[in-house]
Write a structure and sequence with these properties.
Length: 336
């Protein structure tokens, strides 16, 4: 018998895969939601060897009937909403689609919980991007928000609607304000993975240079595998609340480049080129989180994985991917 039942939206993404593995190891029966119309892309679940332990069900955040049917089928104790249009750059070219999924999609899930079973515990993946350039001090739960992209604005709507439903209807609904978190299964459209993937290809003679935008942007980078534990801890508390999840350290994109190239014995300055097309219409220049509340209340440890350890982990994984393409083909491509 399983201890609890959990429904994860965004199961095919980085966080969804790590959370699924974490919950399976905790004894949960895990259901992963996918959108019927989308291309089924389960390679991350296979990478973490958890695909066999997850039951997949259709769910569309644009369709409340679909959401309600999924909840009726699963009868979950906990719902983790990790689904979103999650790439900041794309939100400028697809603002309406971003708002529908990342903003109104959360409202549809919350309202479905209210109507079907208000005892379900709900986790919403909020983001440090909501802060924008609002502060030059480490951001915490009470720092003012100032979103600088359609993605951040949609996420801020979702963040506030979580609080609204918690206060208006008594739902156990929490939001984790997660700062940047990475891993070997991060999408290559994100700058950290773009860097480590390029390092491997340059080292192996597969490409000559890496085009990037703003090297001076500062971010608080952690390991996704550590951050999903904080998500779970939020839903194990007596009272629902919102928490910042971050390491408290900030590093520039330049520092990430320098360290990643050094892992391969290379000098980043010889290979990185600035390309204006990778600069956003508006860019957040500084993000650093203060997770004191999560450490104190949840007992969460932000330093299980160091920044240097994270960079090495990602570079090593990409080097292995290109050095052993047969293994990559066997364990990844056939499952996409």
């Amino acid at each position: 018998m399983f201890e609890k039942r959990a429904l994860i939206t965004g199961i095919t993404g980085q966080d969804g895969a790590y959370l699924a593995k974490f919950l399976v190891n905790k004894g949960y029966k895990v259901y992963g939601a996918y959108r019927r119309a989308s291309t089924r892309n389960f390679w991350r679940l296979h990478y973490l060897d958890v695909k066999k332990d997850v039951e997949l069900i259709p769910l569309d955040l644009l369709d409340q009937t679909s959401i309600m049917q999924a909840i009726k089928t699963v009868e979950p104790d906990e719902i983790y909403n990790l689904a979103a249009q999650s790439f900041v750059g794309d939100s400028f070219s697809e603002p309406i689609a971003t708002a529908e999924v990342s903003g109104l999609g959360v409202l549809r899930v919350l309202d479905s919980i209210r109507l079907l079973n208000p005892k379900i515990k709900f986790y919403q993946a909020s983001t440090s991007e909501m802060y924008g350039n609002s502060s030059d001090e480490p951001q915490h739960e009470l720092t003012p928000f100032h979103p600088a992209s359609p993605y951040a604005a949609a996420k801020l709507y979702a963040h506030w609607i979580v609080r609204n439903y918690r206060e208006a209807y008594g739902l156990f609904a929490c939001a984790g304000i997660l700062f940047n978190h990475e891993s070997p299964i991060r999408g290559v459209e994100f700058v950290t993975k773009k860097i480590t993937d390029a390092v491997a290809r340059i080292k192996l003679g597969m490409t000559d240079y890496l085009p990037l935008g703003n090297l001076d942007a500062k971010r608080d980078w952690g390991f996704a595998g550590d951050y999903v534990k904080a998500m779970w801890l939020m839903l194990q508390q007596k009272e629902p609340d919102d928490y910042v999840v971050a390491t408290g350290e900030t590093h520039t994109v330049r520092e990430f480049c320098q360290m990643a190239f050094a892992e391969a014995g290379l000098d980043y300055e010889k290979y990185v080129r600035i390309d204006e097309k990778f600069k956003r219409p508006r860019d957040v220049v500084y993000l650093q989180g203060n997770s004191e509340k999560a450490q104190r209340v949840l007992g969460w440890n932000p330093k299980e994985t160091t920044f240097a350890g994270l960079v090495k982990m990602m570079v090593d994984a990409d080097m292995d991917k290109y050095r052993n393409p047969e293994k990559f083909m066997k364990h990844f491509l056939k499952h996409i």
